[in-house]
Amino acid sequence: MATLADYGPEVRAEVKQVREVVSNLHQQLIKWNLVVWTAGNVSQRLHTADLFVIKPSGLRYEYLTPSSMVVVDLDGNVVDGAEAPSSDTASHAYIYRNMPDVYGVVHTHSTYATAWAATGQNIPCGLTMMGDEFGGPVPVGPFRLIGSEAIGKGVVETLKKYPKSPAVLMQNHGPFTIGKDAEGAVKAAAMTEEVAHTMWAACQLGDIIEIDQSDIDKLNDRYQNVYGQH
Known about the structure:
alpha+beta; globular
């Protein structure tokens, strides 16, 4: 089985950089109240090789360092790292194999998003910011047991039905988010929790006024192609 020493200097240099990125982004999960204890994980795929970097399993966030991040191939085999990789590694690997434009994946158990997942409900698109970020509702995916690529399959199946959404709420489990890099996936995780909380609050006040899909499409197009710096 290949080790990191079998790869060239360009790959090893990117591994070093991505390890730092992934390690640091786990602190953002804490900052935005998206995880507790050792739950959740961030990964980022390399551009120079079919590898990705992911959090080790069961290690507390305050102990995470770039060197503790684990490098695995797209079949989930460890290429470099002293620790065992996250128990979600097979699902991250499945997502990367089947969604070639995705270079970042995040999983959390954030409170309000996971509450929607526990009820098996999509988060309805009742906010313009949801149209911007998700292009519609935040969808719920099927119930799948952890420990294999089954959750990854459920994520991919669901996002194929909701191609503008960077997030899926896996039923009875929690949100998975994707991005063009790990930072983009962390942003999507934070936004998922924000809209989950707000739409839960809206439900306490009355019926949610959902936005027409034609207006959602306009919002999403503006946000993706006009908003921000280019």
